[in-house]
Structures are given as structure tokens and as C-alpha cells.
Amino acid sequence: ICRQTYYPCLDICFIQLQAAENEKVRWELEKTQLQQNIEENKERMLKLESYWIEAQTLCHTVNEHLKETQSQYQALEKKYNKAKKLIKDFQQKELDFIKRQEAERKKIEDLEKAHLVEVQGLQVRIRDLEAEVFRLLKQNGTQVNNNNNIFERRTSLGEVSKGDTMENLDVKQTSCQDGLSQGLFKLTAKMFFNDYKTQP
């Protein structure tokens, strides 16, 4: 009876021991799997960390490039604004130069017109003076001819005295010519004086 009772107990213990061994093996497998998973996760974490560091480095590089680009953009913007201002100033100076050139051209045209009017006026006065001189010369020539005729008649009639020599006649003709010259001078001076008073 004891044997029969003893063997089943051994079987139960053996079964429990086998189950414990199986459980131990399962736990060992799970432990190995967990360790493998931990190692894989560590590798992944290291890769992610390296990726993160690389991303940080890339971000830092991009930020540096962005700052440099912003600085270049600001410098280009300043140069653009300066060039724009220079172009505007140049255009304004060009407009001012064109205005001054137009004003000078108009001034020259006005001076040329005034000069032309003055020249035409002087030409008219010259013609008037020439006509007046011609008239005076003609009048003086007529008077000289009359004096000569009177002298010839008096000579033929014997009315010329001994004191009326040729020298005295030359003096009279010279006095007449001097009077003509003085008359011409006075006429010319009068016309130019009137012209001077009428000028602005």
C-alpha cells in the first residue's frame, strides 16, 4: 500500500518539476528575447540619438546659413535702396539740367531776336543817315555852285575887290565844309542820343 501511494507522489513531483523546468526554460527564452529586444532598442536609440544630433547639427548649419542669408539680404537691400536713391537723384539732376538748358536756349533765342531787332533798327538809322548826308551834300553842293556862279558874275562885271583873293574864297569854302561836318556830327549825335534814351 505504501508503494502504491509513494509512486503517484513521485509522479506528481516529477510532473511539477518538469513543469517548473519548462517554465524556467520559457522564462529563459523570454529573458533572452527581452535582452535581445533591449539591445535592439538600445541600437535604435543610439541611431535615433545620432540622427537627432545630426539633425541638430543640420539645424544649426541651416540657422547659420539663414543668418548669413539674412545679412546678405539686408546688405543687398541697403545697396538697392542706395542705388534707387542715386537713380532718383540722377533723374532729378537730369530734369534740372534739361530745364536749365531749355531756359538758356530760350534766353539765347530772345537775345538773338533782340539783336536782330537792334540790327534792323541800326540798318534803318544808317539808311536814314545816308539819306540825310546825301541831302546835306546835295544842298551844300548847290550852295557852292551858287557861290561860284555869283563869283563868276562878279568877276566878269569887275565887282571883285583886290582883297577878295583866291585864298579868301578857299577859306569861305573851308568854312562851309566845316559847317557841313558840324551839322552832320550834330545830326548823328542827336539820332544816337534819341536811340540811347529809348533803350530799356
What is the structure about, briefly put?
By secondary structure, the chain is an all-alpha fold.
Task: Set down the secondary structure blueprint.
Elements: H1 2-157, H2 166-198
Helix pairs in contact: 1-2
- Nearest-integer average pLDDT: 78
Q: Could you give the count of β-strands?
A: 0
Strand content: under 5%
**Oligomerization state of this entry?**
single chain
Percent range of helical residues: over 70%
GO molecular function: actin filament binding
Protein name: Protein phosphatase 1 regulatory subunit 9A
Keywords: Coiled coil, Phosphoprotein
Coiled coil: 17-93
Q: What descriptive keywords fit this protein?
A:
200 residues, mainly alpha, 2 helices
Task: Please give a structural write-up.
The chain has helices spanning 2-157, 166-198. The chain has 200 residues and is mainly α. It has one domain (2-198). The protein starts with a helix and ends with a helix. Residues 159-176 have low confidence and may be disordered. This is Protein phosphatase 1 regulatory subunit 9A.
